[in-house]
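Structure in, sequence out. Go:
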């Protein structure tokens, strides 16, 4: 009788897994929004616990956090819609100026006309491609607004009903066979630990990159001429640091291009090479793996591959899923035998 009950529970678990996989297929177009909603709700719950500890009010903490989330998303959408065409215009102006500067600097070399033509074609194509990308984002706004709406609604409800979800999850686990229940609990505990570690890693690396960007720009300014708004550039680099590989490049590359157009090649070169070596290479091969290995108690190689390969394979959601899946797979393989043997 006991074996039949155990077999029935496992069959029900198998059906549940198949249903979940089918639901994932249906929700796949919105999987990015849902994954980041889960991550956002988790981070908001951590913020809520710390905030409510100081203000002694669950309701007020919830209102503050949800209001901050809504305000941030609304401000981001407003800034994008208000400035998209100005961004395109400034980008085209920048490309044209950079092309003229490069052609003028190459003029004393008496290069064949076809080389100058190829350079002009290259800049025209680059400008057109970038403009097309920005316009495609603008024309696809209905899709992105749907994604944003799903993210926003899912984040709020997951955050609001987190305790109810936790209780329902525990009640489901209580009805499972002990072996499966132990394995699932172990996975959930590992996910919780990895989420915290990934969040702390990204936060600490962002802080390090912001500090190093500010220090480097101040030093470059002292060696050449002052760079305005250094704290702003440092904060932008810190914010973009959640995106591996291209984070700092989105800030220091335009800065270097601006100073190159402004006839300050030394400053442009210093900013560009400092950005590549200190803000691009070092964070990915040294800072992020080292900080992640300390926060997650994992080998730096796993952290390096997870943070690097995740975004390359899975896109933006790979920032979270990359290290999560690699660490989870390693822990499950190493602990599976112990989890099963405990039940025998």
């Amino acid at each position: 009788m006991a074996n039949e009950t155990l077999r029935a529970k496992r069959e029900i678990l198998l059906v549940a897994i198949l249903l979940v996989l089918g639901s994932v297929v249906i929700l796949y177009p919105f999987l990015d929004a849902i994954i980041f909603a889960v991550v956002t709700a988790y981070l908001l719950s951590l913020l809520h616990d710390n905030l409510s500890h100081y203000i002694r009010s669950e309701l007020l903490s919830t209102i503050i956090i949800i209001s901050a989330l809504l305000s941030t998303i609304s401000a981001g959408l407003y800034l994008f819609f208000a400035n998209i065409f100005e961004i395109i215009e400034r980008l085209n102006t920048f490309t044209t100026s950079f092309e003229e500067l490069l052609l003028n600097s190459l003029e004393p070399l008496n290069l064949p006309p076809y080389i100058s033509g190829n350079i002009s074609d290259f800049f025209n194509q680059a400008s057109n491609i970038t403009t097309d990308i920005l316009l495609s984002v603008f024309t696809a706004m209905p899709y992105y607004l749907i994604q944003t709406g799903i993210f926003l609604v899912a984040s709020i409800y997951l955050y609001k009903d987190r305790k109810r979800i936790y209780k329902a999850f525990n009640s489901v686990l209580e009805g499972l066979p002990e072996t499966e229940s132990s394995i699932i609990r172990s996975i959930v505990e590992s996910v919780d630990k990895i989420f915290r570690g990934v969040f702390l890693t990204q936060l600490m690396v962002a802080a390090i990159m912001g500090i190093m960007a500010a220090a480097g720009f101040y030093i470059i300014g002292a060696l050449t001429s002052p760079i305005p708004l250094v704290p702003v550039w440092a904060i932008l680099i810190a914010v973009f640091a959640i995106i591996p590989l291209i984070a700092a490049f989105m800030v220091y590359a335009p800065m270097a291009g601006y100073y190159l157009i402004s006839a300050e090649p030394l400053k442009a070169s210093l900013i560009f090479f400092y950005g590549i070596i200190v803000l691009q290479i070092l964070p990915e091969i040294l800072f992020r793996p080292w900080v992640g290995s300390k926060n997650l108690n994992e080998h730096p190689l796993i952290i390096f591959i997870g943070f690097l390969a995740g975004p390359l394979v899975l896109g933006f959601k790979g920032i979270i899923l990359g290290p999560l899946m690699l660490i989870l797979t390693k822990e499950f393989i190493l602990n599976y035998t112990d989890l099963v043997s405990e039940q025998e």
